[in-house]
Design a protein that fits this description.
mainly alpha; 3-methyladenine DNA Glycosylase II, Chain A, domain 3; Alpha-Beta Plaits; 3 domains; two-stranded antiparallel sheet; 7 helices; 4 strands; 5% strand; binds iron/sulfur cluster; metal-binding; membrane; cell membrane; 4Fe-4S
Length: 260
């Protein structure tokens, strides 16, 4: 559980994603959603009912969510949001969980089978390890979100209290929140880049296969029919990929529009 040699931490993580106390540069963050997001603890735990702190901030700004849904922020977090929004201080909504000491994930390394599912689930890249090797939580990076617990097939991750007696913002500093936010945002960039690279690889492979099918000899009507069938399958797959990419680009544009 202690920090040790990091076997899987992405080597291209910018230093700011590990040590910076400043939020990532985001011109759009000047809007109301950005100012709300600045006040959230950035554990990215999803307990508010949204996939990360940013979407929750957007939902509050749009009036789709109340400002008392973040257990890691606790009562102080609600008060901070209430001040920003000019609204009354209200109790944390218990439907989303209770305010509690900050937790820390601990992996029973003897039981770990190295499946990597926890790494995929961790929103801030706080777990190091590689396939079929034991995995370890990097304590200083763990936000206590507990998202790694459920996917573990051998139940070897437990959450322990890391800040005895201190809860909410008493158990979490602004510097920790800023660092978690930077790591989360960087992870999103990396995952998007990885997906784009993979998609490009698949597209090139499909184009090469299409060329190969088109160049193949097809003398008989049966061979020509088979060639046409194969071409149609490849072209349909390429068209599906193109539409998916287009949709992703439109979603990205809509998201950045919503940030402004
Ligand atoms: S810390 Fe968790 S509950 Fe709070 S806003 Fe972020 S994701 Fe939502
Ligand atoms: S190690 Fe587990 S609890 Fe800690 S930040 Fe990652 S997913 Fe959350
Ligand atoms: S999910 Fe569990 S078994 Fe799989 S690598 Fe993580 S700790 Fe090990």
């Amino acid at each position: 559980m202690s920090p040790l040699s990091c076997l899987n931490c992405p080597t291209d993580v910018p230093p700011s994603a590990i040590t910076s106390s400043a939020p990532p540069a985001d011109p759009a963050a000047s809007g109301l959603a950005g100012r709300i997001e600045d006040l959230l603890p950035q554990t990215q735990c999803t307990k508010c009912g949204y996939p990360a702190c940013r979407p929750y901030a957007e939902a509050i700004a749009d009036g789709r969510a109340s400002y008392n849904q973040c257990p890691p922020g606790g009562a102080e977090g609600v008060a901070r949001l209430a001040r920003l929004l000019g609204r009354p201080v209200i109790p944390l909504n218990p439907v989303h969980g209770r305010e509690q000491p900050r937790l820390l994930a601990v992996i029973d390394e003897a039981a770990c089978i190295g499946c990597t599912l926890c790494i995929q689930a961790c929103p801030v890249d706080a777990i190091s390890g590689a396939a079929k090797q034991m995995h370890t939580v990097i304590d200083a990076l763990c936000t206590g979100c507990d998202l790694c617990v459920a996917p573990c097939p051998v139940d070897c991750i437990t959450m322990v209290e890391a800040t005895l007696g201190r809860t909410g913002w008493q158990a979490w500093t602004q510097e920790q929140a800023d660092a978690a936010r930077a790591r989360h945002d960087w992870r999103a960039v990396r995952l998007k880049r990885d997906k784009e690279e993979n998609d490009a690889r698949l597209a090139a492979k499909a184009a090469a296969k299409l060329k190969e099918v088109e160049a193949a000899e097809a003398g008989t009507p049966e061979e020509r029919a088979e060639q046409a069938r194969k071409k149609a399958i490849i072209q349909a797959a390429m068209e599906r990929a193109r539409l998916k990419k287009l949709q992703a680009e439109q979603d990205d544009a809509a998201r950045s529009g919503a940030k402004q």
